[in-house]
Amino acid sequence: MPREYAAPSPDLLAWVGGEVGPGGRVVAVERLVGGITADMDRLTVSLPGRDVEVVLRRWADEDGTTDLVVREAAALTALAASPGHGVPVPELVATGPRRTLTTALAGEPDLAPADPASWLAQLAAAQAAVHTVTPLPANPRAAADRYEDRPRALDWIADRGLREAARQAADGPPPRDDLAFVHGDFQHFNVLWLDGRLTGVVDWPHAGVASRGTDVGHCRLNLAVLLGPQAAAGHLTAYERAAGAPVDRRADLRSLLCFDVEWQEFIPRQVAGRAALDVAGMPDRVAHTVRDALDALDASG
Hints:
Elements: H1 10-20, E1 25-31, E2 38-47, E3 50-59, H2 65-80, E4 92-96, E5 99-103, H3 116-130, H4 146-149, H5 160-170, E6 179-182, E7 191-194, E8 197-201, E9 208-211, H6 212-226, H7 229-243, H8 249-256, H9 263-271, H10 282-299
Antiparallel strand pairs: 1-2, 2-3, 3-5, 4-5, 6-9, 7-8
């Protein structure tokens, strides 16, 4: 959940400088907005003869933080070992207690694209490319199945018939024959853009092995929340075109059902004024997307 931002301490800045290189000294700190579970800063580090920009992520002292650090480090290592994917991603610089330090990439999230079709096509192509990465043998752990994390009342779906049909269709574990390396939180808040071109996919602490449909469905859920069911449908079409294969429709549906009314509280903080946002309409937009997903699941047999 959202937490109050705290600037990095002098000791932490000294650690960053030392990890970047001998004689490194942090000369500028820029807070990155939109984070809800960790503090993020873009730091400029002065080295002899040059400056280097890095990103520091800091989690609060909470359960599970160590796993997030390990998971992100393992993901960035796997991505570096599979350069053929072609997706611009940060490089791991260092890890520490409840923190990761990575290289900085150009660009920033674009939540109101001037060319939505190109934006969706690039987003989908990047996600499909991520799914071609070979996980590290030492860390093939499954990404979290958010649908199983807690009971789902689905009360935000006003249509009781749709609610029950969706619950029944989603029942059971995700498929085991659609597994791939996944980002785990692939969506527009974690993708960087510059002049209409995708320049980076960031924030990898939830990466692991899971169904492609689970990862795609999570992205579609976020698109439905911010932009609506048409964007969610467009992403699925563009992804399957880029991947050359369909996703498991039930895994996709399970991710869509992970919406909760709590999203109406934290999504505005993530958007942070960077796009128009209809908070009240979120449940209806996701319910529309769920209905479309159910229709697709029925059509697939």
